[in-house]
Amino acid sequence: MSDVKSLIYRDGELKLLDQRKLPIITEFISCRTYQEVGECIREMVVRGAPAIGATAAYGMAIGALTSETQEVSSLREELEEAAEYLRGTRPTAVNLFWAIERMLKVAEKNSQLSVDELKNKLLEEAHQIADDDIEINRRIGSYGEKLIAVGDTVLTHCNAGALATVDYGTALGVIRAAQEAGKEIKVFADETRPYLQGARLTAWEMVQEQIPVTLITDNMAGHAMKIGRIQKIVVGADRIAANGDTANKIGTYSLSVLAKEHGIPFYIAAPISTFDFTIKTGEEIPIEERSSREVTHVFDVQIAPEGVDVFNPAFDVTPHENITAIITEYGVIENPDAEKIAALRSQIEKEV
Ligand code: MRU
User: Which of 7, 68, 116, 265 lies at a 20 to 30 A Cα distance from 157?
Assistant: First the structure.
């Protein structure tokens, strides 16, 4: 378990670790309304697909708890409004939409309860989503570490760690589990321009855990692969289409192409809640475009000419053909494709 939590809920208040300020300042932002929760997702106080999902679930619970209505029907209407607001915060990570739908289903299934009972049920569900996330990441870690050999150097991109989840992480969960299994691994962390999640968050998590980490700028990854410094690549995901095409932080696709060129295994670590079975291929995944300022400035210092044209997609899509395997809490899907993913899905549905 990591020392610092991305989110803490207590008595109607959701405290979110302000990830924009890490690793320099450790500060929490307090949210007491669903709108405040939504703003924190939009402004990336909290980020990372599973953390966004759990935060949105608490946003829905807080929306219910702060409602003054005495009628279940109007509570459900207010929940729809909260859902609409939260859905509008970030478009790519499907865990956001998944968690909101899960909360709305609880409201639908329990509409016979009193207002207070329903509020409690919704809070219980948010806690369940958060608790499950930690357990799921542990399972991903234990499947994933088996793919890592003693002494490997593992490259990761962005931050798919404890900060991007409720705890432990997906890609960094695999790395943590390999370390716990005594594999004496090393990590290379891409800095991940423009938002620097690798430099600010992944490097910080690894230093905290005393896992040997080397920070590189994104354009050094190809060279590091070419000279044999990287044995495996493990990254997270924001949305996985039914055929295995995977959206993740911008720069992931380029890494997958380089990995293919150099014969390096390229793994995605993600929970089943990151799969979007409603879309056939990655072409349908909405890609968030963020402010040009993220590219023209670094920490408020302007580094580009005034008025320059900027393109700032926050994510890209890696085609499934470039992915060696997807590591989930239900096992590893090697050479993922629509057929194998459908088979795992039906196996899960039978188990549940
Ligand atoms: O823009 P971000 O920081 O929310 O993007 C995060 C990523 O791309 C992560 O790799 C992904 O969400 C997986 S987190 C376990």
Answer: 7
